[in-house]
């Protein structure tokens, strides 16, 4: 049961402009039937460290989030915490910010790498609380990056601009029809003949369509018969 996240990594010049894939294991089953929720204070302490220390940073880089059932999520209100401690152990937490009763709760949805997952599976809440405390301890952290959404998700962008060939052809035809001159003020081409005197389009007189047609210029009054 893995979540998949796609993010830019602006701190890595070798992958500039390229998306990195991060796979994280869902921890819903590790804490009963719900995801663990932590208080808003954790995020406040994280923001405080970001404002005070250079090795704590935040950046907008997340472009796509997919759950274990291959469902795309809106990337707003999601964060990835990506950190390394002084012993060079990596921690990756996928969290969702959710507002309830004027408070923002942090829902921990998935973790990586496997060593962290194994630790949580074995010691559960005790291990989770110790790791969260560690993440907010600047002297014990080598770096911590708090990633946010960057614009709309890739999935939303693709849906917004998805037009099949038939729809595109209809759009082109509609635009073509709108560009055609028409004295009737309707959106279809005008095939009326032009007046040889003044050059304006002539108007067909109703009731003259059996055997022959009669045209009259509404500008100068010139008349023309057509079989």
What does this structure look like?
This protein is of the alpha+beta class. The protein has two domains: 2-160, no CATH class; 165-226, no CATH class. Helix content is 25%, strand content 34%. The protein has four helices and twelve strands, in the order βββαβββββαβααβββ. It has helices at 40-52, 114-135, 154-160, 165-179; strands at 2-8, 19-26, 37-38, 56-66, 72-73, 78-85, 90-100, 103-112, 141-149, 203-204, 213-216, 223-226. It has a seven-stranded mixed barrel. It has a three-stranded antiparallel beta sheet with strand order 10-11-12, with no helix packed on it. It is elongated.
Characterize this entry briefly.
The protein has 227 residues and is α+β, with helices and mostly antiparallel strands. It has helices spanning 40-52, 114-135, 154-160, 165-179, and strands at residues 2-8, 19-26, 37-38, 56-66, 72-73, 78-85, 90-100, 103-112, 141-149, 203-204, 213-216, 223-226.
């Amino acid at each position: 049961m893995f979540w998949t996240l796609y993010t830019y990594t602006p701190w890595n010049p070798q992958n500039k402009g390229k998306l990195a894939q991060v796979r994280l294991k869902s921890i819903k089953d590790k804490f009963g039937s719900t995801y663990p929720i932590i208080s808003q204070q954790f995020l406040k302490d994280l923001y405080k460290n970001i404002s005070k220390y250079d090795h704590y940073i935040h950046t907008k880089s997340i472009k796509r989030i997919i759950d274990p059932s291959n469902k795309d999520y809106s990337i707003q209100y999601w964060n990835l915490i990506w950190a390394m401690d002084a012993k060079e152990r990596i921690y990756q937490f996928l969290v969702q910010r959710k507002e309830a009763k004027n408070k923002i709760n942090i829902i921990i949805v998935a973790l990586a790498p496997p060593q962290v997952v194994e630790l949580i599976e074995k010691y559960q809440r005790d291990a989770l609380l110790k790791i969260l405390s560690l993440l907010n301890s600047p002297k014990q952290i080598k770096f911590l990056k708090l990633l946010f959404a960057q614009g709309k998700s890739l999935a939303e962008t693709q849906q917004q601009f998805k037009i099949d060939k038939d729809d595109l052809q209809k759009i082109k035809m509609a635009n073509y029809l709108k560009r055609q001159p028409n004295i009737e003020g309707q959106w279809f081409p005008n095939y009326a003949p032009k007046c040889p005197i003044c050059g304006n389009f002539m108007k067909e007189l109703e009731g003259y369509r059996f055997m022959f047609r009669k045209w009259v210029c509404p500008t100068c009054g010139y008349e023309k018969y057509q079989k």
